[in-house]
Amino acid sequence: MNDQPVPSSILPPSAPRKSPTMLILVVVLGLGAALFATLAIVSFGQAHRAKADANATKLAAATAARTDQEAKDTIAARQSNESPFRSYLAPNEYGGFEIKFPKNWSSSIDEEASSTTQVALLINPDFIRRVNGTEGLMAARVTLSQRNLDANIKLYASQKPLSQSTVSVSGIRSTQFSGTFNDKRTQRIVLVPVRDKTIIFANEDKNYAREFDAILAQSKIVP
């Protein structure tokens, strides 16, 4: 048996030794990756819960708001049914004023943006009757004139038989004319300034003078 040593050139290479620093680095990187993954999972869970909580809060708020609005609508409907009055609410472009009158009265409304009279509301306890082109006397005629207050005051002040006085409508200092008008049908007119325009209340049927006063008293106008 040959006991001669085997040349080192034909021996298999020995496995390289891993340095302690490399092992520590691998462990640290592994722990870092695990920690990052854990934090990512926790953050995702927290974000998901936060989003779910926010959605639940929004849903609860929307539900509460809807319930509150339904309750308000129910109360408003009941009050409307119980009230002896109904309202005409002008569009915002005409000032959004509100005129209340007995709900069992007749009424008609004409709105024309390009007209000198942008709103013409007729209110009467009976039919709003037109005979041979002439309207019957109205308990209340409410119009929105594009003329300002001074122009309308001059128009009626020129009718000498009329008496002029100051009244308040919806807390607004207004001008009233009464007496014999040129049209031979109007009994009283109240001019209410609204910005650069004028709301004109007219009573033609003297039998409804008190109801006319009630309509004036309940009007809501933003100056």
Describe the structure.
The structure is a single chain. By secondary structure, this protein is an alpha+beta fold. Helices cover 37% and strands 28% of the residues. It contains three helices and eleven strands; from the N terminus they run αβββββββαββββα. It has helices at 20-82, 149-157, 209-218; strands spanning 85-89, 98-102, 106-111, 117-124, 130-131, 134-135, 140-145, 163-169, 172-178, 188-194, 197-203. The strands form three sheets. A seven-stranded antiparallel sheet has the order 3-4-7-11-10-9-8, sandwiched between helices. A two-stranded antiparallel ribbon has the order 1-2. Strands 5-6 form a two-stranded antiparallel ribbon. The chain starts with 19 loop residues before the first helix and ends in a 5-residue tail after the last helix.
Q: What's the structural blueprint in terms of helices and strands?
A:
Blueprint: H1 20-82, E1 85-89, E2 98-102, E3 106-111, E4 117-124, E5 130-131, E6 134-135, E7 140-145, H2 149-157, E8 163-169, E9 172-178, E10 188-194, E11 197-203, H3 209-218
Antiparallel strand pairs: 1-2, 3-4, 4-7, 5-6, 7-11, 8-9, 9-10, 10-11
